[in-house]
Structure formats: C-alpha cells, structure tokens
Design brief:
With 80 residues, the chain is an all-alpha fold. Helices cover 71% and strands 0% of the residues. The chain is built from 4 helices and no strands. Helix 1 crosses helix 2 and helix 2 crosses helix 4.
Length: 80
C-alpha cells in the first residue's frame, strides 16, 4: 500500500513537472498550442535531455518516461 501511494505521488510530481516544462517550452515555441501531442512529446523529450534546468531529483523522476509515456500523460491532462 505504501508503494502504491509513492507511485501515485511520483505520477503527480511527473504531471506537475511536465506542466512546468510545457510552459517553459511555450515561451520559445509560440505555436506549441497548435502542435500535435506527439510533436510536443518529442520537443519535451529533447528539452529534458538538453537545456531544461532540472535538479537531479527532477531528472531522476522523468528518466523512466519514454516519449510515448509523455504523449499519454499529455493527452490525459489536456489542460496542460
């Protein structure tokens, strides 16, 4: 049960972190709103691996996510 709560907490942290990164990306990509989810996931993945200012903990939290995982999270939270 504790592991399940930790997994839920990690998913929520990932969601909030991805929201922040989408906001950061949108400052440089004014047309981000009009891009497909797969294109945004690609941009996020590249940003995370490159210029994103992330702590080690944040990087560790996002490390297990594939581009497809990011796509799914974006589509589930289309309010991002």
């Amino acid at each position: 049960m504790l592991e399940e709560k930790q997994a839920d907490l990690d998913r929520e942290k990932q969601r909030k972190l991805l929201e922040r990164l989408v906001a950061e990306l949108s400052r440089d990509h004014f047309d981000l709103y009009y891009q497909s989810t797969s294109e945004i996931a690609f941009l996020l993945e590249s940003y995370i691996q490159g210029n994103a200012k992330l702590t080690q903990d944040e990087r560790a939290l996002l490390a297990p996510l594939t581009r497809r995982d990011i796509e799914i999270k974006l589509s589930l939270h289309s309010g991002m």
